[in-house]
Write a structure and sequence with these properties.
Elements: H1 7-29, E1 46-49, E2 57-60, H2 83-174
Antiparallel strand pairs: 1-2
Length: about 180
């Protein structure tokens, strides 16, 4: 908002301002993920279900970061071609920085809640997997012990048959037969 700027300098600064202003629109438009853009106007909140019966959720409200929206006060047609317009734009930029910072804080809190829920779900999944593994291992150990017991019984049975088959031979040898 310098009164001492000549028209060439003011035009160059305005072109830079407009380029930066237009980048906001591009960034907001390209901030879509999986069909959802929570920084665009009119977007629904993101709702994540946090329990099996869907009675508890984490909700992240959208934050309108479009030009002229509730948070970014700079408009899509705003320029700084005069000292008065530049002063107004400076005020809008300062207020927008405060508003966008608050909006990003809300988005960050929501992201942190989702991350905590993801970590919790991973821990539950790992615990269930370990528990199932322990059950399978315990059953395998039990079945292995049962198999060894059956093998020992089989070997004892074979030895008993061998001894029983040798007994008549021993009796006959005693009587000289």
């Amino acid at each position: 908002a310098d009164a001492g700027l000549d028209n060439t300098s003011r035009t160059a600064l305005n072109e830079d301002f407009e380029a930066l202003r237009d980048q906001i629109t591009i960034i907001v438009a390209n901030s879509e993920f999986n069909g959802t853009n929570i920084i665009n106007a009119g977007t629904d909140a993101v709702v994540a279900i946090t329990n099996p019966n869907a009675s508890q959720t984490i909700t992240i409200s959208h934050q309108n970061l479009t030009l002229g929206g509730g948070n970014v006060l700079v408009t899509a047609t705003q320029t700084i071609t005069t000292q008065t317009l530049a002063a107004a734009a400076l005020t809008d930029v300062d207020n927008s920085l405060t508003n966008v910072s608050a909006a990003l804080t809300k988005l960050g809190a929501g992201a942190k809640a989702l991350e905590s829920q993801r970590v919790f779900a991973d821990i539950i999944s790992d615990t269930i997997e370990i528990g199932i593994g322990n059950l399978v291992d315990a059953n395998m150990a039990k079945e292995s012990a049962n198999l060894q017991a059956l093998q020992v019984k089989q070997q004892l049975g074979i030895q008993a048959l061998s001894i029983a088959n040798q007994a008549p031979q021993s009796i006959l040898s005693i009587f000289g037969g």
